[in-house]
Structures are given as structure tokens and as C-alpha cells.
Amino acid sequence: xxxxxANEANWTPTAVADTTNFTDTGYMALQGGTxxxxxxxxxxxxxxxxxxSSPCAMCVARDSTVGATLSxxxxxxxxxxxxxxxxxxxxxxTATTKPQRSATLSLLQLAFNSFGGTVRWTxxxxxxxxxxxxxxASVGETSLSSLNTGTPGAMTSHFIIEPF
Amino acid sequence: xxxxRQAEGYLIxxxxxxxxxxxxxxxxxxxxxxxxxxxxxxxxxxxSATVTCEHCHxxxxxxxxRSRPRExxxxxxxxxxxxxxxxxxxxxxxxxxxVRNDIAVxxxxxxxxxxxE
Lengths: 164, 117
Known about the structure:
The complex is a heterodimer. By secondary structure, chain A is an all-beta fold. In chain A, 0% of the residues lie in helices and 59% in strands. Chain A has no helices and twelve strands. In chain A, the strands form two sheets. In chain A, strands 1, 3, 6, 9, 10 and 12 form a six-stranded antiparallel beta sheet that branches. The model of chain A has no long low-confidence stretch (mean pLDDT 92). Chain B is an alpha+beta fold. In chain B, a hairpin with a 6-residue loop joins strand 2 (45-52) and strand 3. Chain B is elongated. Chain B starts with 8 loop residues before the first strand and ends with a helix. At the A-B interface, strand 8, strand 9 and strand 10 of A face strand 1, strand 2, strand 5 and helix 3 of B. Strand 9 (118-122) of chain A pairs antiparallel with strand 1 of chain B.
């Protein structure tokens, strides 16, 4: 299947504790388009845009409460000839029912300083990708958010994904 | 022939606005007996291999100083994290997340097919 980029440009994380509602535009989340859709996360990237030192305790984690009534963000195929998906995965940072990060299912801890810092995690192709399934808690939604510490600054970020 | 290294992902964290770590010689040149040493923190770039646990898909950043062997599940022929290794020792059988996802998706597709009938 084809690879897609789910991304958010120039957003500032809001520090939030586990199992606490996220704040709109203060996180980036990815949810399956249907109850049977499977998504592999192949790469996570963050590039700092802050103008002063901003330690960010960023965490990629599964969500114990998924968002609902979502405001869809940026999603684009990496290959120009990719056919349209039947149902797109949903990348979002705004929702009426706010998502909550799981306290036990964190996948990556990626602390860095967004004053010019960058972070990039890449899976070994076909062997170590993170799998998502469906659109219900907990494996149906994965979020990139700030833990309840540090002083997060502006950044840009993307997930490279492969939906099935 | 397959290698365990093929399963490794890659992590890089860069903080270019920070100065690099000082050398031991630089630290020794400013240190005085009985007095604390203050040197600028210079870490700029951190790179590491990562592995993904096949049972829970937790991503483990490999510590090069670790002396204990990494856990390996011979049933699914993959790395597993220390938590899943403990569960295995407690008697939990191997069930990779991909297999659990396959089972769940099949059940859901059958349920949706029955609803259509």
C-alpha cells in the first residue's frame, strides 16, 4: 500500500497530563478512518520553530479516549500516482470530544528543545513499524503531545504512515 | 540471510543551539580540588538505534551501555521489550500485536457482513 504524510504546520503543544483532555491545537492526533482500517506509522518528525529555549517533553502514545467530531488536518500521498483511499485516516488537532493520552501505552518519548532542535524516528521498513487498528480506543488513535512538564514551544511535525 | 540489525529503527535528536560537550581534558583544566566544576553543557546531537517490541509495539531506544541481553521471542522471531519478556516468564503466551489486529479486524468484518444480511 502507499505511504502518506499526516502533518501539522507551526503549532505549539500544550502540556497535558495523562488521561486528561487535550487542548485544541495543542496536540496532533491520527485516527483510523473506519473500524477496520489498519495504519502503520513509519516515521515521526518534529522540527523546532521557537525563538527562545523551549524544552518540550513530547510523547507519541496511544489514546485511551479517542476524539470525536474532528476537524480534519493535512494528509497527502507521497507518491503522485497514488489512488485515492476509500476512507482516509483522520489527522486532527481539534475535536469536540477531546482525546486523552493513555497512562500506560506510550510508544515514544521524544524530549527536545524546540529552539531549533529536531527529532526524527524512523522504523525499519516492514519490521518495526507501529500498528494502529480501527478508530476506537486504544489502538485506533495515536497522538503526539506534550507531557505535563517543560515549556513547549512552536514546532512543525509529521507522521509518515501506510494505511491498509 | 536475515540479521537482527535489520529490525532496528533510527532515532536522531538534534539541539543545534546548544554547545557540544566539553572533553575530559577541558573539565580537568578548570577543576580545582574541593570546588564544584561548572562547564557549559554541549550536547548537540543524539543518535541511536531503536527496536519495536513485536508483542506491544513499544519502541525501545537502545542503550549502548546496557550489559543485560535484549529479550528475543523465538515464537514470533522478534525483539520484545522487558515488560513483555516478564509477562512471557509469567506464562503469557506469544501474541504479537499484528496477530491480535488480524483477529480483531476479521471479527469486525464478519460482524459488518452479518449486519448487511
